[in-house]
Design the sequence.
């Protein structure tokens, strides 16, 4: 791949998906896009780039899909789900006792393990949530992973990663060499395509947003912009769960850390602006096309 082609792909991927590749990631791009070029009967990445420049929309989407990281597994990192059971849901149940409903958004849901883990946590609460209306929305930029999410079918390897055996027995059935999660759990999730770079205000307000292990791929200005819009999509007393290596500190005053639960954040009701931190310019305009 020539330096010119790599710079084109860096800019293209950032505009389309928010993926912020450093100058030394050429090997990563080659490892993921050379197989795509071969599958598309192209001579190499140079021809792939020319096709994208000529307006091959389908191929452009496939490039974004190929470069999207879809690493996930059931109950990933465990601690966020402990926080969910022990603190977040009990507090929300108390605050929402009048309306008896909860709205939860799992952004960058990948192949569905995270939203299904949330759903199983809620199902395990049994009678405590009986009669409550629970809405869980899982979104991702990749149509391919959304289709797998909807099917709820996982390999032996995938169900062995983080899923307690008692929940496998209780909520899955074996289908050949695969495992499919039960209809009652699948029916708890709505899956939708969504690019976090685009406006998501039409989705309404949420009590809880899981946005874990996706913003690490974005630059600081884009993170700040997205945090501002996440704050607008959240109820004033809602919760935001980030990945173990992620933080809002130094990026935005839209959220403040939960005092007792690492990785959990609350809207900062005293903030001056939800999307600008001191010393920063006006937030970036949202990209016009599809990232996780």
Sequence:
């Amino acid at each position: 791949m020539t330096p010119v082609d790599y710079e084109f792909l860096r800019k293209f991927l950032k505009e389309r998906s928010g993926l912020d590749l450093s100058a030394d990631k050429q090997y990563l791009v080659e490892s993921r896009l050379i197989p795509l070029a071969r599958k598309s009967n192209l001579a190499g990445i140079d021809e792939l780039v020319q096709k994208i420049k000529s307006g091959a929309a389908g191929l452009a989407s496939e490039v974004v899909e190929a470069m999207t990281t879809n690493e996930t597994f059931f109950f990933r990192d465990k601690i966020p789900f402990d926080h969910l059971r022990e603190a977040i849901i009990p507090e929300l149940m108390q605050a929402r006792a009048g309306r008896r409903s909860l709205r939860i958004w799992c952004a960058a849901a990948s192949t569905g393990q995270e939203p299904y883990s949330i759903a199983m946590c809620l199902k395990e609460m049994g009678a405590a949530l009986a009669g409550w209306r629970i809405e869980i929305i899982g979104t991702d930029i990749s149509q391919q992973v959304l289709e797998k999410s909807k099917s709820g079918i996982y390999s032996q390897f995938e169900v062995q990663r983080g899923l307690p055996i008692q929940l496998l027995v209780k909520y899955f059935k074996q289908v050949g060499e695969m495992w499919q999660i039960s209809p009652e759990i699948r029916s708890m999730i709505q899956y939708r395509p969504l690019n976090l770079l685009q406006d998501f205000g039409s989705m309404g307000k949420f009590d809880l947003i899981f946005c874990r292990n996706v913003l690490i791929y974005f630059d600081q200005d884009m993170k700040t912009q997205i945090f501002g819009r996440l704050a607008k999509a959240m109820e004033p007393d809602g919760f935001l769960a980030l990945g173990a290596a992620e933080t809002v500190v130094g990026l935005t005053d839209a959220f403040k850390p939960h005092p007792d639960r690492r990785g959990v954040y609350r809207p900062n009701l005293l903030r001056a602006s939800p999307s600008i931190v001191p010393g920063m310019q006006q937030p970036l305009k949202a990209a016009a096309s599809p990232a996780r």
Q: What stands out?
A: Residues 79-267 form a domain with the Rossmann fold fold (CATH 3.40.50.150).
